[in-house]
Amino acid sequence: MTSALFSPLPLRSVEARNRLWVSPLCQYSCEEQDGVPTDWHLVHLGSFARGGAGLVMAEATAIVPEGRISPWDTGIWNDEQRDAWARIVDFIHGQGALAAIQLAHAGRKASTYREWSGVGSVPASEGGWPTVAPSAIAFDGYAEPAALDEDGIAAVVEAFADAARLSLDAGFDVLEVHAAHGYLLHQFLSPVSNHREDRWGGALVGRARLLLHVVRRVREVAGPDVPVFVRVSATDWLEPEGWTLDDTVTVSQWLREAGADLVDTSTGGLVGGVRIPTGPGYQVRHAAAIRERSGIPATAVGMIVDARQAESLVASGQADAVFVGREFMRDPHLPLRAAHELGVEIDYWPAQYTRASWSSRPAVVHEED
Length: 369
Description:
single chain; 369 residues; alpha/beta; TIM Barrel; eight-stranded parallel sheet; two-stranded antiparallel sheet; 11 helices; 33% helix
């Protein structure tokens, strides 16, 4: 069978072997609270590469200590973290997948407990820290942030650039700028969280200014060969007062001009308690609109759990690739199973696992002497 899902996708100087990709999945598992990825991250991410993913995206990785969602987040602001990531990247490459990293700053949603350790903001007495945002407006139930000044904004831009440089040194093939899910860059984009009256707020061009500055600097560091993705929340689900799909389409055009190669499309996350009409592939229409109306490649994510569903999304042109999260956690060998279900022949079954492949060929059994 000819498959759109299992066709390669060239991305500047690299190529993904298929279009079934691993979403960034926060693990909150740096128990030393130093941002250094551990054996957990190696096995977690490595299993997806072994399972046939075309691209494996590391979790939201903080560009500075105060940018972590929680004290247990991974980071990419120093050499120790870089070297720990390099070990993981090497394994991913050894399994034939591309290694990507999501560069992030949580803004007003930083310094929070992981879900099994507590609720709300972590106090300084337990390792927490003051947070920052475009405006001094707290996320529901979290501590009030300080509004960034000009120097603080400039430092954020350079921190993204420095993190991009360290990521390339670690061997990552793809860099993604996280501008979704209510984190710092999304906070600047949305009029709900950005009440500034200077050049970083107001009209859409002002609210998008920081994201575009970051993307241009990351592109400068990445050079002509490394793909740069941007994850966006295509809507706050708060129309008409919030960030909208029309805003996202416009900014996606600007992102393409700034050097972005692909928009990784999600939704929501800016405020709590919003009713989101979820269902299988519920965010696909946003990716399709961005792809069609802005002319930039786009990926879809959100309740994509079935091989034929994923195949249809790519084959129909609604998305250039699909990011999958929970289903990969349920089955790290999702692409191997999907290829079987679609009747696609692939050549990257791990040699150690071929006896488990869905094949008519009998397994060779080596008996003990």
